[in-house]
Amino acid sequence: MYIPSFSSAIADSVFPFNWLQDAMHAFIIYLAAFFATTPSSEVGSPSSGSEKYLIGLGIGDVTGPVVETNMMGYASLAQTDTGLHMRQRSRAFIVADTSNPSERILFINSDICMSDTGIRRTILSSLASRYGDIYTPANTALVGTHAHSGVGGYLENLLPQVTSRGYVNDTAAAIVSGTLKAIADAHNSLAPGNLKLGNTTLQNANRNRSPSAYLANPEWERAMYEGDQDWTVSVLGFEDTNGRARGLMSFFPVHGTSLYENNTLVSGDNKGMAAWMYESYIEPSSMPGNNSFVAGFVQSNMGDTSPNTLGAFCESPGKPWDGQPCEVEHSTCGNLTEDCHGRGPGFRISDFESNRMIGQAQFEATRTVMEGNNMTRVSGSVKSVHVYLDMTNYSFTLPNGTLARTCPAALGYSFAGGTSDGPGAFDFTQGHNSSQPSNPFWEIVKIFITPPPSEEQIACQYPKPILLNSGYAHEPYDWAPGTVDVQMLRVGQFVILVMPGELTTMAGRRMREALRVKLIADGILDNRAYVVIAGPGNTYGHYVATREEYGVQRYEGASTIFGPATLEAYINRYSELVLHLADNDTGSPLSNAAPLEQTSKSISMQNPVIVDHPSIFKDFGDVLIDVESSTYYAGDTVAVRFVGANPRNNLRLEGTFFTVDQQVNGEWVVIRTDSHPSTTYKWNRTSTVLGTSTVDARWTIEDGTPAGTYRITYYGDAKSFLGDISAFTGVSSTFTVN
Ligand SMILES: *[C@@H]1O[C@H](CO)[C@@H](O)[C@H](O)[C@H]1NC(C)=O
Ligand SMILES: *[C@@H]1O[C@H](CO)[C@@H](O)[C@H](O)[C@H]1NC(C)=O
Ligand SMILES: *[C@@H]1O[C@H](CO)[C@@H](O)[C@H](O)[C@H]1NC(C)=O
Ligand SMILES: *[C@@H]1O[C@H](CO)[C@@H](O)[C@H](O)[C@H]1NC(C)=O
Ligand SMILES: *[C@@H]1O[C@H](CO)[C@@H](O)[C@H](O)[C@H]1NC(C)=O
Ligand SMILES: *[C@@H]1O[C@H](CO)[C@@H](O)[C@H](O)[C@H]1NC(C)=O
Ligand SMILES: *[C@@H]1O[C@H](CO)[C@@H](O)[C@H](O)[C@H]1NC(C)=O
Ligand SMILES: *[C@@H]1O[C@H](CO)[C@@H](O)[C@H](O)[C@H]1NC(C)=O
Ligand SMILES: *[C@@H]1O[C@H](CO)[C@@H](O)[C@H](O)[C@H]1NC(C)=O
Ligand SMILES: *[C@@H]1O[C@H](CO)[C@@H](O)[C@H](O)[C@H]1NC(C)=O
Ligand SMILES: *[C@@H]1O[C@H](CO)[C@@H](O)[C@H](O)[C@H]1NC(C)=O
């Protein structure tokens, strides 16, 4: 690990833009550091108030093209986005050791389905050119919230690209630029502060979707825990030296599948909702994404954990089993998976209501911890460790002395069955049934079909029946990852295990317990050690089920790609690395080689925007359907249709496709943007030949909206035949809210 000299680290990293401020702050930080390192303040002892961290927080817009692009998560070819519910954000959290600011961590929580090796590589190389050796593969973690309603096409491996028709550069570029913006804001806001830690119990916001697999875990082990999902919400609070809260990270396992696969409006799902709720609760007048208080709702061991808390039921109109619970072991209705759907708590009202409720539950629980005066001060060193691990054939010794190994990736049959959160996956039946519409990307790549598994691979993956031998498929580029990121971040007694996949409930419990025991046994932390799981982070290595769950081969077991010993391999390798979290450690662990770059080989089939035209006798931004009435009340929805243009022409990152404006003292003031959950933006290409399209802007008026005069303004960007793009606006008639 590179350790710059103390003074250059301050100058380079803390306040780089104003030398006078630099000098003053550097002096204050120097003093703080001096006191922190005097013998009266023992490392690891509860802080007396002198031991502070440098903390920085930032937020950035990562929303890719909100139309004509496949959405990431359900792997449904039909789920092409048509507009926007809420923008996706990256939230960056930096913690540096005041006495040695080169010891720092950068944790990025992004409203994307999962992190990706290619995106991480691009971000790290930009960070290197911008900040030198300050942010490194070791100390920088990129973690997805597992939202299933974000824009797709950004992953580097081939398999997740099947439904997005290859790589979508615009999506990847938006994630990179918004994340870099979040990091820059975090870096520029670095200031002394404190961290505190607490937890609470949250029930009825998640439910195990594979309870029959969970039951395969030993009874004595299950008896140690309440329930077949984790209910703990763990909160890391960030505050300035005056005790004012600056932000938080809240860890809770629940899939980002509150919005179903029939939703086509881009959204951050329940974690994005929780984050917006918290941020707007602290800064009610800030527009979404323009806040300085940053709330990261981080995904945890949610592999088998659904937000569909009412359970899974058959939606089979006309069939005797319509409305009945699905068959439990296979999640089927009349022997088919397609009709079995989980139901969220707002099922009777709307899918968006379930999303709101699961978001709100996480927000409220986190607020209880933050405002509860029962949080523990975090104190001690800032440390990080990262290695690449080749999971295609990792050999190690199990605790009982038996040798074990992992295998090249493969997916089992149940993978294609999907889950009750989203039945059926990755469109595999397309190639098998020629009477169904064919997927052009699949048509190209299927000629590189996965090679049949060898006897060795079949034995290694046993008892998984192999559907896709993806670890042996490298043409035209790798279908599945072989090398993943193993990473741990430590701040004082708080340790984050950044996992390259989706751990099931019990897999997460085993991982956390094993690492906590190891940290204490090796004298790295005392029994204050508090260990959490964050993921899917860095590389997407699919699922991680326990060996017993793997045997049952539900979706999670079938998607545990590196074989039955996957979890044990991670426990083994992470445990070996805990010594690098010790206060005095300066060593560099041995690492496998980084995975090879393959973004440059990727096939992209997304057509560019050809042209936009207003219809005859119209102009862009003209109102086609105006507000219906001159007076509205809370609960009403105002809807306006404009002559539109393709929003792919300009993603308007950090901006908005429309605003709701209120007249205040004769001036129009923006009170809502396209990212408020009370608004939706929908685009419709009305004629491909003519290049015409419409935009629907809607606002459902919240309780408490002040009475007054309002209007809706649309911001569009049209592409001409020559290819240049010009901005335009459209404005509705005014209306009053009473
Ligand atoms: C992808 O997007 C980035 C960032 O906008 C751009 O620099 C790059 O040229 C694009 N690549 C392709 C293949 O379009
Ligand atoms: C909550 O935090 C307390 C204090 O650190 C700890 O004893 C307890 O185990 C935590 N609960 C869970 C479920 O982690
Ligand atoms: C979306 O799918 C869910 C689950 O199948 C269903 O209950 C709901 O009615 C669907 N919504 C719409 C608008 O079709
Ligand atoms: C964002 O906040 C800054 C100040 O914090 C303010 O100057 C700016 O106008 C805000 N932008 C929007 C779009 O609200
Ligand atoms: C489901 O499969 C079972 C066993 O093959 C069979 O007995 C049953 O009739 C099937 N049910 C339906 C509705 O097809
Ligand atoms: C406060 O936190 C401690 C652990 O840090 C826990 O044991 C105790 O139950 C909590 N008290 C309340 C009122 O939540
Ligand atoms: C895994 O490694 C062992 C030796 O360590 C070797 O015998 C075996 O062929 C390897 N398997 C694969 C799939 O590479
Ligand atoms: C050790 O554990 C593995 C995995 O549970 C098991 O397959 C193996 O039989 C065990 N070996 C012994 C000697 O108990
Ligand atoms: C293909 O699938 C469709 C819809 O599921 C079905 O109607 C059709 O019979 C199938 N064709 C063949 C050849 O199996
Ligand atoms: C770190 O400290 C521990 C305990 O004080 C000691 O055993 C170990 O050798 C030290 N390691 C290094 C690399 O200095
Ligand atoms: C989009 O426009 C076409 C052509 O006017 C119309 O047929 C279709 O119903 C519209 N779709 C939506 C979702 O409004």
Automatic annotation (TrEMBL):
Q: Which UniProt keywords apply?
A: Hydrolase, Lipid metabolism, Metal-binding, Sphingolipid metabolism, Zinc
Query: Sorted alphabetically, which InterPro entries does this protein's record hold?
Result: Ceramidase_alk, NCDase_C_sf, NEUT/ALK_ceramidase_C, NEUT/ALK_ceramidase_N
Question: Which Pfam families does the entry link to?
Answer: Ceramidase_alk, Ceramidse_alk_C
Keyword Glycoprotein (UniProt): no
Catalyzed reaction equations: an N-acylsphing-4-enine + H2O = sphing-4-enine + a fatty acid
Q: Where is the active site?
A: S306 (nucleophile)
Its GO CC terms?
Answer: extracellular region; membrane
One GO MF term on file is:
N-acylsphingosine amidohydrolase activity
Cofactors named for this entry: Zn(2+)
Residue limits of the Neutral/alkaline non-lysosomal ceramidase N-terminal domain?
Answer: 53-572
Q: Where is the Neutral/alkaline non-lysosomal ceramidase C-terminal domain?
A: 575-737
Q: Where is the signal peptide?
A: none
Can you cite a GO biological process for this protein? long-chain fatty acid biosynthetic process
Q: What is its EC number?
A: 3.5.1.23
Is Hydrolase among this UniProt entry's keywords? yes
Q: What class of enzyme is it?
A: hydrolase
The record's free-text note on cofactor binding: Binds 1 zinc ion per subunit.
Query: Which residues are Zn(2+)-binding?
Result: H146, H255, E502, Y543
- Write down the superkingdom of origin: Eukaryota
Q: Which family does it belong to?
A: Belongs to the neutral ceramidase family.
| Descriptive protein name | Neutral ceramidase
Organism phylogeny = Eukaryota, Fungi, Dikarya, Basidiomycota, Agaricomycotina
